[in-house]
Amino acid sequence: MKVIWEKEIDADKIKVSPRPVWKCRICKFYNKRLSCPPYVPSWKEAKEWISSYKKAILIKFKISMENFEEEKRKALIYLLKRENELFKKYPYVFALFPGACNLCEKCEFEENGYCPMKEKVRPSIDAIGIEISSIVDIKFDESVIYGLIMVE
């Protein structure tokens, strides 16, 4: 995993709709991970929440598809680290994950309903209805994922 860039964006550019959440319904992690529906706020609640922010940081990660789960895990850890660093300046800072949580190699929540890292799990960008294409030009030939941190 490599951070390609971090960009500050205006939060009012972030489009929230039910469309990404409907895509979640066909994902194998739907109803299985704490970062995914139905365990995250609804898109309507997320829309209101995002409107309370002025700025966000969009982060683009280059990942190896051969080691996707490990590379994505490193990106999630990076997002949590950045969230913690930014907390000193922005008390309501909040990271959003690129897809389902995979902080653990084997998901205990999926197995028995208990998450040992519950305080670290953040909602997936898609799961709360954020249309990532509203804030970045998606190029499907790139091996990248995007994280988002709401800051101000």
Describe this structure in words.
- This protein has 152 residues and is α+β, with helices and mostly antiparallel strands.
- The protein has one domain.
- The protein is 26% helix and 18% strand.
- It has 4 helices and 4 strands.
- The protein has helices spanning 19-24, 43-50, 68-87, 108-112; strands spanning 2-10, 55-62, 94-96, 144-150.
- It has a 4-stranded antiparallel sheet with strand order 1-2-4-3, with helices on one face.
- The longest helix has 20 residues, at 68-87.
- The two termini are 27 Å apart.
Strand content: 15-25%
Distance between the termini: 27 Å
Uncertain runs are none
Give the number of DSSP strands: 4
| Helix coverage percent | 25-40%
Estimated radius of gyration? 15 Å
Overall number of structural domains:
1
Average predicted confidence as pLDDT: 97
Could you give the order of strands across the largest sheet? 1-2-4-3
Largest sheet: 4 strands, antiparallel
Structural class: alpha+beta
